[in-house]
Structure formats: C-alpha cells, structure tokens
Amino acid sequence: MNGVRPPESVGVAIVGGGLMGREIAAALGRWPALVDHPVTPRLVGVADINPAALEWFRTIDTVEITTTDYRDLLADDRVDVVYVAVRHDLHQQIYVDVVEAGKSLLAEKPFGIDGDAARAVLAAVEAHPESFVRCSSEMPYFPGAQVALRYIASGALGEIVSARCSFLHASDLDRAKPSNWKRQARFCGQAGVLNDLGMHTWHVPLRLGWKPERLYGVLQDVVTERPGPDGTPVPCDTWDNAVVHSWVPQPGGKEFPLTTETKRIDPGQKNTWELEAIGMDGSVRFSTKNPKSVQVFGIVDVPGTGREQVWHQVDAGSQSCWPTVTGPNFESGFSDAILQMWAVFLAERHGSLGDRFGAARPEEAALTHVLYDAAITSHAERRVVSL
Fold it and tell me: Where is the Gfo/Idh/MocA-like oxidoreductase N-terminal domain (predicted)?
C-alpha cells in the first residue's frame, strides 16, 4: 500500500546440531530485535548424524525437517541458506555439496581442513556464482570492536607502529580434560589451533588490507596426551598455542609488525578477543574481556600540568552494524554478535549491506591457510617465511 517492499523470506537450515548450531537457532529466534532488516529468516531444517541432537530443535515451531542426512536439506526447496558446523575433515565435501546444490552457505572456519580443501571449496564457489558464500567470524561484531574498526579505517592512526589481534582460551590448562576431535590432526588438521581459532584473528586484519609479506611462527603442542573415551590416555597431536609475527607493508614504503595470537592455553581467558592498533597520530584498543570499553589514545592539555599522553576510555553501548531495538546505552554480548553476523550475512546476500563490515569472504578464508602453512614451515625450520 505505501510502496515499502516486504522483507524477503529466507529458509535456513543447519548442518551440525551441536553448540554452534543451537547458538545460531537461538539467534534466528531473536530476529525481531533487528530494525528494518530486508530479510526475514526462518529456521526450517536441521541435520545431524546423531538423532539425539535433533530433539532440541524439534521444540522450535518453524523447524519442518529433521534428518540424519544433510543431503535431504539440499534437495528441499524450502531451504535457501545452509549453515554448517561440523568437523574440519568434513568441510570440503559438505561445503562443495551445498554450493553445487545452489544453496547459499555460511561456513564455519577454517573453510576446509587444509589449503587444498579450502581451494577446492573456493573453486566450487567460483563455478556457482548463484551460491552466496561467507565464513563465520562473529567477534568483530561486538559494538566495541566496530568502534575500533571505524577508528582505524578513518586514518586516525597515521603511520602504523604495530598491531595485534588475539583470540584466547584457557580450558586446555586442565590436563584431565578429555580429548576430542579438535585435539587430533586427522580431524582438526595439521594447523591445529590455527584451524580452530585462527579466522577470529585474521578476519579484521585481512579486511583492513593488512596482508603480510613475511612471517615467523611460534607454535606449541603443550599437552601431548589426554584421557580418551575410556579414560586411557590418547595422543593429542595438534598445536595448542600459536603466535604469528608478521610484517605488513603500509603507504610510504614502510612496514609495521602485526602479531596474531591463537591460544587454547592462556590462563584466565574465556573466549577473549582482542584488537590493538598503535599509530604515531592515534591508537585504539578493544577486548571482549571488558566488552563495553574501548580505549583511544590521545594527547591532551591537563590544567596545571601541561600536555600529557592519555588513554581515554569510551563506553561502546549496544549498537553494532545493524540497528536493534535495544537501548543504545545497554550492553552487548556474544549472542548479540552472532545475531549481527547473521544480519550482515543475509543483508549482503540481499544486496543491502551498504558500507557495513561484512562477514569473512571465501578468498579471505582460503588465504588464512596460506598463512597457517607458512607459520608451520617457519616454526619447523626456525626461519622467517616470505609470502
């Protein structure tokens, strides 16, 4: 009547009904919190090889398909978009199948168990432009992270002195924690923690154009065995911690050091994501450990003292990329970041992203494997690797 187009209805299916599958289902249930989004998603189907994992999803009234075979979802016209969260060794086959079925895909990191798998998925994406594909990376959608990103993009840093992006866990400090597939290279991949967490630390740098020319990797396999299903120790042959030191070119012919950290053993940390960028004209820091607080550096006149270097603290509030009904002075958390990632993913698929910070692209995900391989080579040979 008033000329306003109704939102596009999109059927979403989930492959992998574990922790992240349930998190995505919960986020889609909160969709009305978004203001004037051009898409209305409906969770219509779920697949998991474990029938028991499907029971939770059957309580969601929009779910019409539950199956132990993901191919049932790909053959169903009610499904437009597929989110996949499965073991890394299964990525290539399932991702390629989704793309070749003409469905859009939000794929979990690392976009394949290794570089060959990632390149195979990328080739399928290029052969099927009708399938819109992105890689999951939710941490940059904390409002404070967006404040920091806008600060960096504005040029306020001036000449960059250094930058760091980290993703930190601590649960593996417990040697009695049972082993799982992420601690086995045949399922997780030779890159270990880099495969598991690395995209969290590279999404922002790569989107900012910070592509390293050379790097040095420092990798640790700290806990080499853990209790198996029957309590008997089994080998854990994946990297627990990985620090990558790299050099990134910037205008003027100079370089700056970029450090990325992915750690399963960093005492006291619970899913902490951090971004720091230091420049000659300005600097900014953000950590999800203090999710409202963004630190911005400046030089100010202090009455009675003179000019001083000061780290200012700014409260970020609740608003991220896509506006929500939440009051701007309220707080935001992990579930809100998931909702924002899906908001930008479906908006970009619709052609309505604008200048918002988009989800990780397939070529960015594939490039991370080049970086991981270089880090492994660097660590093994104790040398800097050129890219």
Answer: 11-128
CA distance 378 to 292: 37
- The phi and psi torsions of 227 (rounded to 5 degrees) equal -60, 130
- CATH of region 140-328+360-386, choose from 3.30.360.10, 3.30.559.10, 1.10.260.40, 3.40.50.1000: 3.30.360.10
Tokens of 143: 């409002």
Query: Angle at the Cα of 350 (from 54 to 348), degrees rounded to 5?
Result: 85
**b (16+ CB within 10 A) / e for 107-118:** bbbbbbbbbebb
CATH 3.90.1150.10 fits 8-135, yes or no: no
Give me the residues paired with residue 68 across strands.
Answer: none
pLDDT digits (tens, 9 = 90+) for 29-66: 999 999 999 999 999 999 999 999 999 999 999 999 99
- Percent of the chain past pLDDT 90, that is, above it, reads 98
Extents of the domains making up the chain: 8-135, 140-328+360-386
State how far the alpha carbon of 378 is from the alpha carbons of 159, 181, 198, 371, in Å.
28, 25, 16, 10
Q: What is the pLDDT of residue 140?
A: 98
Backbone angles phi, psi at 159, to 5 degrees: -65, 125
Strands of the sheet with 160-168, listed across from one edge: 306-315, 293-302, 283-287, 272-279, 160-168, 255-263, 241-249, 214-220, 385-386
3-state secondary structure of 323: coil
Signed CA dihedral, 340, 346, 349, 354: sign only: negative
- Note the pTM of the prediction, 2 decimals: 0.96
